[in-house]
Amino acid sequence: MEFIHFIVNPVAGYGKNPITEPFLKAYFEEENYTIQVKYSTFKKQAILLTKESILEGATIIVACGGDGTINEVASCLVRTPIILGIIPIGSGNGLASNLQIPSNVEKAIAIIKNKKNTQIDVGSINDRYFFSNTGIGFAASVIKNYEQKRTHTLWGYITATFKSFKEFGDAVDSEVSIDKSQIMDNPFMIFISNSNELGYKVSLTPKASLQDGYLDVVIVPKIGRLKIIFLILLMLFNKQHILKEVKTFQTKKIQLYKNKGVDFEPQIDGDVQLMGERTLNIALEEGALNVFVTQPFGIVMG
Ligand SMILES: Nc1ncnc2c1ncn2[C@@H]1O[C@H](COP(=O)(O)OP(=O)(O)OP(=O)(O)O)[C@@H](O)[C@H]1O
């Protein structure tokens, strides 16, 4: 008997999804599965619901939402034997896309029922985990503006990008040191990724792998407005490396320190968080999360 708990974000994506207990019971027959469905009613409640499900003896916990919900659920499952299932009903669904889990709910359910699981790497930033990506600068500013919008769609990201572009000149003067050596004035963006997709098939780190034991880092120093426009266009076609200012490398850990300017406000899997700290210690934990995947993805364990 499997004890499967579903943690559903009812406002993810377009806020329309079919996930109810009767709907799921049609797929998870009572002879083999005991299911429970829980809905989050406020931001970050999925963390509390997941912790409760662990205490209740769930063997599989399914995050039903986008990258934010997956982050909240999966953060509680790192280094536990509990397997994460994903039903991607968010807007961007970057991690699910990297894992080749389709947005079609029935197909995503079939992957869970197929019981093939693998272990993926997990990123950490101070006391938090990330599974897709984290970073500071322009990408975090876009997400902050996006979070304030009512429509969480691709159009929401486009208008948030315009707003961040307009605000760019008002940025507070800042200085960041990287690994206690390189010092950057007002870096445009420092982006650190575990997965190869941001969502909507856009990628800043197309070569990143969830199972290679490395984080992929993209650093863009302060650049002028024309170059920003050029860079945004290049990003849409995954060709940002054409711009010589864009530096990419792989690492197992990286430390950012704010010498000057306000405290760090990084985005963590699409959620902007004021850290209230001047140091960000970002690292990778290899293979620390069990997740259901499609048959051809990665090294299948189960
Ligand atoms: N009932 C709720 N009301 C408001 N916010 C909620 C509720 N339940 C969860 N949330 C929050 O919604 C945020 C966004 O969720 P999520 O990332 O899953 O969806 P999305 O933004 O549509 O998808 P994606 O991140 O893939 O673009 C999360 O920060 C989560 O904490």
From TrEMBL:
GO terms for molecular function: kinase activity. Residues 1-129 form the DAGKc domain. Its cofactor is Mg(2+). Keywords: ATP-binding, Kinase, Lipid biosynthesis, Lipid metabolism, Magnesium, Metal-binding, Nucleotide-binding, Phospholipid biosynthesis, Phospholipid metabolism, Transferase. The keyword Lipid metabolism applies. Pfam families: DAGK_cat, YegS_C. InterPro entries: ATP-NAD_kinase_N, Diacylglycerol/lipid_kinase, Diacylglycerol_kinase_cat_dom, Lipid_Phosphate_FormReg, NAD/diacylglycerol_kinase_sf, YegS/DAGK_C. The keyword Metal-binding applies. This is YegS/Rv2252/BmrU family lipid kinase.
